[in-house]
Write a structure and sequence with these properties.
- The protein is an alpha/beta fold.
- It has 14 helices and 19 strands.
- It has helices at residues 14-25, 48-56, 85-92, 122-127, 133-148, 167-174, 178-188, 202-218, 233-244, 324-327, 363-366, 368-371, 394-397, 412-426, and strands at residues 4-10, 30-33, 45-46, 73-74, 80-81, 101-103, 106-111, 114-117, 224-227, 248-250, 257-260, 266-271, 274-283, 292-305, 318-322, 333-339, 350-357, 379-390, 399-401.
- Strands 1, 2, 10, 11, 12, 13 and 19 form a 7-stranded mixed sheet that branches. It has a 7-stranded mixed sheet with strand order 8-7-15-16-17-14-18. A 3-stranded antiparallel sheet has the order 5-9-6.
- Strand 11 (257-260) and strand 12 form a beta hairpin.
- Helix 1 packs parallel to helix 9 and helix 1 (14-25) packs across helix 14 (412-426).
- It is globular.
- The chain starts with a strand and ends in a 21-residue tail after the last helix.
C-alpha cells in the first residue's frame, strides 16, 4: 500500500465507482478503498435478510415473503433515462457489456387526485385525459414546437431566443394552464422546484426533448431503463472497468483516515497503519464529515407487495411523480416500483419505494399520499437519512466530495454531480457524444 497514486477514492457508492472508472480509463493511477466488506455504500442492494436486519433488528424473515436471496432491493432506487447522461457514460466506458437492461413499463404523474400517463409528444397530448379539449390543442402546439426545435436551425426557433427568453414567457405564448405547466415541469422536464420558470427556456426544452427521444428509443411506455438484478450491479461493473485499466480495489479497510499536510492539503490515506500517498482524494460525505454541510433529509418507505400499483395498466416497473403543488408541499414526492420482471424480487412480488425531501420527522405521515397509491401492502419499512453537500474548496485541500443521494427516482441529478466532479478533478469536460445504439445489444428484453 505504500505507493503513490494520482487519486485515492474512498467509498464504493455508485458515484465514486463511476469516477474511479472514468479516471482509470483516463490513465490515472487509482486506488479505491471502502471500510465496508461490500460494494455500493449508500447505494447498495440488499437481500431480504439484510433488509430485515437493518430495519427490524432481526434476521428471521416471514415465509410468505419468499426466499431472501431472490430479493435485490436498491437502497437508492433510480431509473435511467434511455438517452440520458448515465447511459452515455456506460457506453463511453463499455460498461454496458457487464450489464443487461430492460425497459421500464410506465411513467405517470399525479394530478388532481389521480394517476395519469405522462404525455411526451403531440400525439400523446391529444389522447391524454390530463387536459380538456382546448388545452390539449394548446399543449399539442407547444409539444410540436419543442419536438421541432433545433438549436442550430434558427427557422425552428419561431423568433424566440431560448437562451434569453424564460420558460414562463415561452409557456405564456402557448397559453397553457397551471396544471399543464406543473406536469410538464416536474414529470417531463424533471425539475425539482419551480425556479426553472424564470430561467432561460433552453434547459427545459432540452430536458423535454431528452424525455421524448428516450421514450421513442424502445417504443415502450416510459423513457426509462433499469438493469436486471437492480443497481447493485452498477458499482461492481465500474469496479471491473477500473481494474481492467489498472485500478486497485480494497474492501473491508477499517478507518480510511485522510492525511493532511501543514497547508491543509490531502496527501494520502491511512488504514491499518499503512499510508498510501496521493495527489487527490475523492470520497462520499461519510469519509470527510468536517468538509460537508447538511442540506436536508430524505424520507422514504420501502414496500413489498404482491400486485402492480393500481391504475398503472398493470405495469411491472413504473415511476410516478407527485408534483409538490398537487400535495401543497415544498418538494415533489416520487414513487418507484419494480418487480420480479427485473429480477429484484421472487416471482409474484413487487417492490415499491415512496421518497421525498423530508419536511417533518414523521415519514409515515409525510409519505402517506404516495403510499395511498400503492394499494394493499404486505410489508413496509420506513427510513429517513441526512443529505450532505461538500462545504470545502477542492483547489485548497485536494478533496473532492460527492453529494448525498437525493429523493428523485431517476439518475439525472446524480450524473450531473459526477460530471461536475470529473471536470473539477481533471480540468476537462467528459465527451458524451456516443453512438447510443451501442447499448442496444445489452438490452435484449428492452424492445
Amino acid at each position: 500500500m505504500d505507493e503513490e497514486y494520482d487519486v485515492i477514492v474512498l467509498g464504493t457508492g455508485l458515484k465514486e465507482c463511476i469516477l474511479s472508472g472514468l479516471l482509470s480509463v483516463d490513465g490515472l493511477k487509482v486506488l479505491h478503498m471502502d471500510r465496508n466488506d461490500y460494494y455500493g455504500g449508500e447505494s447498495t442492494s440488499l437481500n431480504l435478510t439484510k433488509i430485515w436486519k437493518r430495519f427490524k433488528g432481526s434476521e428471521t424473515t416471514p415465509d410468505h415473503l419468499g426466499v431472501s436471496k431472490e430479493y435485490n432491493v436498491d437502497m437508492v432506487p433510480k431509473f435511467m433515462m434511455a438517452n440520458g447522461a448515465l447511459v452515455r457514460v456506460l457506453i463511453r466506458t463499455s460498461v454496458t457489456k457487464y450489464l443487461n437492461f430492460k425497459a421500464v413499463d410506465g411513467s405517470f404523474v399525479y394530478n388532481n387526485g389521480k394517476i395519469h400517463k405522462v404525455p411526451a409528444t403531440d400525439v400523446e397530448a391529444l389522447k391524454s385525459n390530463l387536459m380538456g379539449l382546448f388545452e390539449k390543442r394548446r399543449a399539442r402546439k407547444f409539444f410540436i414546437y419543442v419536438q421541432d426545435y433545433e438549436e442550430d436551425d434558427p427557422k425552428s426557433h419561431e423568433g424566440l431566443d431560448l437562451h434569453k427568453v424564460t420558460t414562463r414567457e415561452v409557456i405564456s405564448k402557448y397559453g397553457l394552464e397551471d396544471d399543464t405547466v406543473d406536469f410538464i415541469g416536474h414529470a417531463l422536464a424533471l425539475h425539482r422546484d419551480d425556479n426553472y420558470l424564470d430561467e432561460p427556456a433552453i434547459d427545459t426544452v432540452k430536458r423535454m426533448k431528452l424525455y421524448a427521444e428516450s421514450l421513442a428509443r424502445f417504443q415502450g411506455g416510459s423513457p426509462y431503463i433499469y438493469p436486471l438484478y437492480g443497481l447493485g450491479e452498477l458499482p461492481q461493473a465500474f469496479a471491473r472497468l477500473s481494474a481492467v485499466y489498472g485500478g486497485t480495489y480494497m474492501l473491508n479497510k477499517p478507518e480510511c483516515k485522510v492525511e493532511f499536510d501543514e497547508s491543509g492539503k490531502a496527501f494520502g490515506v491511512t488504514s491499518e497503519g499503512e499510508t498510501a500517498k496521493c495527489k487527490k482524494v475523492v470520497c462520499d460525505p461519510s469519509y470527510l464529515p468536517d468538509k460537508v454541510k447538511k442540506v436536508g433529509r430524505v424520507a422514504r418507505a420501502i414496500c413489498i407487495m404482491k400486485h402492480p400499483i393500481p391504475d398503472t395498466k398493470d405495469s411491472h416497473s413504473v415511476q410516478i411523480i407527485l408534483p409538490k403543488k398537487q400535495l401543497k408541499r415544498k418538494s415533489d414526492m416520487y414513487v418507484f416500483c419494480c418487480s420480479y420482471a427485473h429480477n429484484v424480487a421472487p416471482k409474484g412480488k413487487f417492490i415499491a419505494f415512496v421518497s421525498t425531501e423530508a419536511e417533518t420527522d414523521k415519514p409515515e405521515i409525510e409519505l402517506k399520499p404516495g403510499i395511498d397509491l400503492l394499494g394493499p401492502v404486505e410489508e413496509t419499512f420506513f427510513d429517513i437519512y441526512d443529505r450532505y453537500e461538500p462545504a470545502n474548496t477542492p483547489e485548497e485541500d485536494n478533496c473532492f466530495v460527492t453529494n448525498s443521494y437525493d429523493a428523485t427516482t431517476h439518475f439525472e441529478t446524480t450524473v450531473k454531480d459526477v460530471l461536475a466532479l470529473y471536470s473539477k478533478i481533471t480540468g476537462k469536460e467528459l465527451d458524451l457524444s456516443v453512438d447510443l445504439n451501442a447499448a442496444s445489444a445489452a438490452e435484449p428484453d428492452a424492445a
